[in-house]
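Please decode residue identities from the backbone states below.
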């Protein structure tokens, strides 16, 4: 086997037909990263019959004394189940990259380990998943383990909504709380729309600090992925917001008055009275919330009669699937659930367009919903698993040390 450099076109042709293809392993993604401090190479692995049997995009940068660390995002594209091929790929990478001052190559293959339901129960197991892990370890890759949270470059767990069904059936199988939040968003005058102009400026206000990337990064994504990028926004129709806020307030006030009147009934037994008092206290809280919403919506109508954007999302289309690459919400309006409406609109649109699934992006692998101190990502999981998602668990992240001396010295210096 030998390593050859591929042109972007050669790499894309190979990658587009590989079983582990993904949008990170494309020339478009490589071009984006090359604008932000990274260099990129497209490497091919050719066997003794001069046949291309593997390939990868690697992005890299100099980190210390001209020494480099490389990363193959969601790569390498090869047959991980073939131990002899893996060992030869590892040997060639060490030989070629080691001579070019590379210290480390990190990979996180797009190889599923398990498919799970919303409670974390395994519904499908990749019988060769552990073989893939063992083959990589036997080939010299250091395994970072089956992490549950976000300790690695890319998430090990993702939530997918399967499509190609009647939209009404998809909605009916959402978690009840998710359905209610979507309805609540609509009742508050929210609409979700696709931005045909792909203007990133508003979205960046919500995702810039979270993702820690400059706005030019998202502009480069749009430039390089072109028609395969979509931008969605959730917008409040302020007049509808006022009307619905007033209605919610008035209905709750009427319900509260009725409870107050019933509590005065002297014939009530103590247990029933306590029950009504509890309902009254909950209703009091809702009245306060609805009143604040009414005041906020009335003021907002005066200031922004044309409406206001309160959330947005970027979607990448690849291989008959839609990936929510990033999303963000104005925290002042998170209680009216714009992010839920956005996700549902994206699901609706891509289902109608015949896509296979929508990838809602990262979740954590801890499915415990009872202890927020132990699992700080309960809210994140709920916001995605509530869409009756199918969970994909990937094999995880691996490091191949290419120059032990330089890498150990680099770690020592940086630790100090």
């Amino acid at each position: 086997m030998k390593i050859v450099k591929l042109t972007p076109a050669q790499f894309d042709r190979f990658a587009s037909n590989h079983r582990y293809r993904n949008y990170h392993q494309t020339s478009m993604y490589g071009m984006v990263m090359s604008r932000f401090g990274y260099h990129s190479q497209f490497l091919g692995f050719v066997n003794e019959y001069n046949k291309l049997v593997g390939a990868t995009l690697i992005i890299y940068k100099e980190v210390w004394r001209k020494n480099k660390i490389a990363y193959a995002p969601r790569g390498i594209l090869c047959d991980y189940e073939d131990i002899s091929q893996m060992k030869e790929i590892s040997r060639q990478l060490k030989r070629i990259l080691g001579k070019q001052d590379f210290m480390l190559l990190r990979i996180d293959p797009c190889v599923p380990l398990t498919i799970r339901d919303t409670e974390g129960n395994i519904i499908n197991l990749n019988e060769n998943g552990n073989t893939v892990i063992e083959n990589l370890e036997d080939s010299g890759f250091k395994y970072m383990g089956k992490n549950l949270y976000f300790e690695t470059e890319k998430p090990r767990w993702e939530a997918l909504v399967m499509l190609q069904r009647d939209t009404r059936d998809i909605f009916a199988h959402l978690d009840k709380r998710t359905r209610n939040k979507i309805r609540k968003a609509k009742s508050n005058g929210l609409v979700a729309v696709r931005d045909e102009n792909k203007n990133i400026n508003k979205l960046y206000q919500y995702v810039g600090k979270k993702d820690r990337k400059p706005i030019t990064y998202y502009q480069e994504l749009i430039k390089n992925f072109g028609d395969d990028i979509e931008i969605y926004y959730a917008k409040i129709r302020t007049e509808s917001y006022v009307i619905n806020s007033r209605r919610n307030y008035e209905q709750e006030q009427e319900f509260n008055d009725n409870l107050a009147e019933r509590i005065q009934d002297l014939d009530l037994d103590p247990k029933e009275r306590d029950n009504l008092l509890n309902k009254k206290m909950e209703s009091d809280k809702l009245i306060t919330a609805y009143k604040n919403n009414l005041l906020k919506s009335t003021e907002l109508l005066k200031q922004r009669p044309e409406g206001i954007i309160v959330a947005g999302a970027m979607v990448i289309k690849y291989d008959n699937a839609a990936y929510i690459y990033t999303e963000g919400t104005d925290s002042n309006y998170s209680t009216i659930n714009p992010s839920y409406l956005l996700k549902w609109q994206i699901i609706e649109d891509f289902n109608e367009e015949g896509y296979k699934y929508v990838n809602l992006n990262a979740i954590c692998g801890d499915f415990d919903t009872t202890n927020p101190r132990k699992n700080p990502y309960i809210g994140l999981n709920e916001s995605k698993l509530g869409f009756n998602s199918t969970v994909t668990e990937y094999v995880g992240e691996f490091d191949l040390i290419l120059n032990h001396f330089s890498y150990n010295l680099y770690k020592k210096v940086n630790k100090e």
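Observation: The first helix runs from residue 8 to 15.
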